[in-house]
Design a protein that fits this description.
214 residues, alpha/beta, eight-stranded mixed beta sheet, 9 helices, 8 strands, Bact_polysacc_biosynth/exp, EC 2.7.10.2, kinase, Wzc-like_C, ATP-binding
Amino acid sequence: MTTPKSPIAEQFRTIRTNIQFSNVDDELQTMIVTSSGPAEGKSTTTANLAVVFAQQGKRVLLIDADLRKPTVHYTFRTENHIGLSNVLTRQTSLEEAVTVTAQDKLWVLPSGPIPPNPSELLGSKGMNNLLEQAKREYDVIILDTPPVLAVTDAQVLSNLADGVVLVVSSGKTETDAAKKAKELLESAKSKILGVVLNNKKVQDSQYYYYYGGK
């Protein structure tokens, strides 16, 4: 997490603003954050975006929809005994699975136990129902999803969200991989809000940039 006055925090506030302006004609309430491959800073980006939206005064729900390698509960130091997988299998309700965080106006829905059929659960009617309920209770819903090139989960969820933010890592993400991820998301009829360039070194600091559009 970042301190409010740090350069990185300021970059995330800029990203938040650019995301909001990228979708001025339509309501932007649900978004997924993904990457082309693993270890590109996707989950860190997701967590910080959730924080800056909450700092804006919006009621934010961060959903760990990475049912293969979940990390949100580590980031926010919450339990993960009950979460998204339990809600989707009707073992518990959304209200019972959501946990509070130290950040005001930010709630977390952890992944819950890792299921044997993540793609099927995420593409189920239950997932759509969960998001519809969440939209009635929260202003912004952000979903952390697995990398696009690894599994189909992000593509499945992109159909349910208002937009997608793609994270790429400077010096790590190959151009062809980023292009392929973009193509797969577009083929799933998702709306790409923009790309966050992660780990770009400027004067020995870690910065994040946002490039709107396609």
